[in-house]
Here is the input.
Amino acid sequence: MPIKGIPIPSVARNGVGAFVKPCYKITIQYCNWGGSSNGVRQLLSNGKLNNLALENREIMFNIVKQKGHPRLTFHYNNDSVKEIECRNNTDGEILKKLKEYSQNSGNKLFKYNHKVLSINDSVRGIWSPMHIPKEHRHKI
Amino acid sequence: MLRSSARFSLTLSALKSDSIAGKNLYAVFRLHNLPYLVTKGDKVILPFKMKNVNVGDKLNLTDVITLGSPHYTYTQKEGISEQLFKLTANVTEVTREPYYEVIKTRPRCRRKKIVPVQPFQTVLTIDTLKLA
Here is the structure.
């Protein structure tokens, strides 16, 4: 039987080499009549949203006029969708939310109690007593 | 001076050959004086929101104290010269930790204060790590 090597498939890691922003589409839903959409209406009319869209050209901004409370929907590359309520928020508060959630990756939030997350093999190797010269080995 | 530079090149050549074309290379860099041991492709998860930084920015990490391979290390506590290596990181995510609440109590006071906590998190991905 021929000897086969163990194939190591390459893992696509966003940010190693090229980086693609995970948030690709933002839907802003507002109502033309309701008071809770005041902030969104201000944001649309005072040009602040235009500036944000110009800064983030890789994100598609979709504005939807629909009755009910306003809502922001963020679409991410990993098929996850985040829906954020923004009823009765001022335009500044909504802008803050837009900036914050457009910088997320769409993954579930988690607390990591270490500093570095790595999928590489241990760079300094696994310690083994058998790989030390015989005269330096620990004797019991 | 001559002697030190000769020793310099010797160390790095050993590192170069031992870290198979940079495959087994690691570096320890400092951020706010805290050391982080990284290899290429690692994610550095910082428990704060980095100032004046946006997602997609590339950071050039220059405060490196150690370069190492499985068998050799080169350490300079005051920092290794920038001409000897290249270490860059991409800012890939600015997010938050999961939401939790802290109940604060004061002595001899029967009221409890519930404080919502959701701290920021910045994720850096190590883009390049190589010897010059």
Observations:
- The two ends of chain A are 43 Å apart (CA to CA).
- The CA atoms of residues 111 and 117 of chain A lie 12 Å apart.
- Strands of chain A lie at 23-30, 60-65, 71-76, 81-85, 116-117.
- The interface with chain B takes residues 13-17, 19, 21-22, 100, 102-105, 107, 109-112, 114-120, 123-125 of chain A (CB under 8 Å).
